[in-house]
Amino acid sequence: xxxxxxxxxxxxxxxxxxxxxxxxxxxxxxxxxxxxxxxxxxxxxxxxxxxxxxxxxxxxxxxxxxxxxxxxxxxxxxxxxxxxxxxxxxxxxxxxxxxxxxxxxxxxxxxxxxxxxxxxxxxxxxxxxxxxxxxxxxxxxxxxxxx
Length: 147
Description:
Blueprint: H1 9-19, E1 23-27, E2 33-34, H2 39-51, E3 69-70, H3 71-82, E4 87-91, H4 109-112, H5 122-135, H6 138-141
Parallel strand pairs: 1-4
Antiparallel strand pairs: 2-3
Helix pairs in contact: 1-3, 1-5, 3-5
């Protein structure tokens, strides 16, 4: 989540709601649980790992929050930030599309031992992303998702 975010459900929902604020199609049943990470926290997590590199072996770290949100919670944050109340339509059951995982939550215990912690909650990250997207329509107008 965050600045220059050009794909995923927040991007798709904001783009749709900008054009049609009265209804929103949600792939899945809305109860999928996801753990999103704000981009600045991600970058700081990477830098924390680099600063603590021992030079002995390659280390692998999961970066993530200690929380998750349901897609319905994310929709609520997006709609609240945009001040819209669309009719929600669901399709696809537990998995909205082939390959979707109804629960994504990574353990970031290992990186936490280095002292790294995300500074933004998922809800804060969603709201900041919505504000960015609404202030930067060129992202939608570009015709393709480019950084």
